[in-house]
Amino acid sequence: MDIEDTSTQNPLSCITPTISTRIFASSNTGVDEARNVLGLQRLTCAGFDIKNPEVLRRRYLRFGGTDQQRISDLQNMATGAIEVPKLLLAARGGYGAMRLLEQVNWQSLGDQMREKGTILAGFSDVTAVQCALLAQGKMSSLAAPMLYSEFGKKQPDVVSCQGFIDAITQPKLKISLPQQDISMLKTPMTGTLWGGNLSVVSALAGSPYIPNPEGGIVFLEDVGEQPYQVERMLYSLYLSGAFKRQQAIVLGAFSGTGQDSYDARYDMSLVVKQLKQITHLPVFTGLPFGHVARKQSFPLGAQCQLSASDTGIELEFSGYPTIAGELIYPEGLWR
Fold first, then answer.
1. Catalytic residue of the set 150, 160, 291, 314
2. What is the pLDDT of residues 66-100, one digit of tens each?
3. What is the DSSP letter of 60?
């Protein structure tokens, strides 16, 4: 089946796609065409009307198209040459988004998205796009699964897919983090939650594309980095002043960290302890998101309230765009 054909597929058990959706390929290419097709089919079945499936055919070196093609995915909406959709979904992560940052008018794109109530969704390398959009466009986005990395899987994770639906349909999304030290959270704390993949956020340190909201809450996750490498990137952010105006740090999954080859006792728990000591900020762990099979989507750049609960802390988000739930057939994402 050609990729171009999938936007018109509507099996009897699916919903008529009405949610205007565009794919952007800011990073790696999706090398498995069958997986791209399956992701498009599932999204269409769930109700997402994909306007540009041909993007997934592009290839240039390791990237999902040339730099200019990938810039145009976003810049053409910033200039008004292409209508901004309700959902802007990343194809996949990898590397390449930082090559685009200087060529996109993020302020204009943020204005266009705000007017339409657009949701930009992705994670991993897409963190660079999300940080730039917030820093210069003052617009929120969504930490969420992507077309190739989740919806195109042979067997998508049902919890992750439902979490994506929850995050785009619930205006007051709540996430609970059990077993937390709440001694530094005597009263509820409210601020803009921002961040994403630690490798990408730390690479943006000192640039005009890193957000630094007054009284913000920083979220960070990563994959495949040893504890010392994680700590080095955290120090890069600390020394650049990224934590100075922040209220708290929330850590997601740090998968595949492995064991320190010099001393196995030097693990992520010691990294977290050091982070608390140098920043003097409360650090909460275990937000179910990152490079793991099961994840809970949530807004970046939106208001987040941290409050103590009987079992730990609760995060409640507000002030971000949503989609009417009746327009979506959730099971289409994992059928």
1. 291
2. 999 999 999 999 999 999 999 999 999 999 999 99
3. B
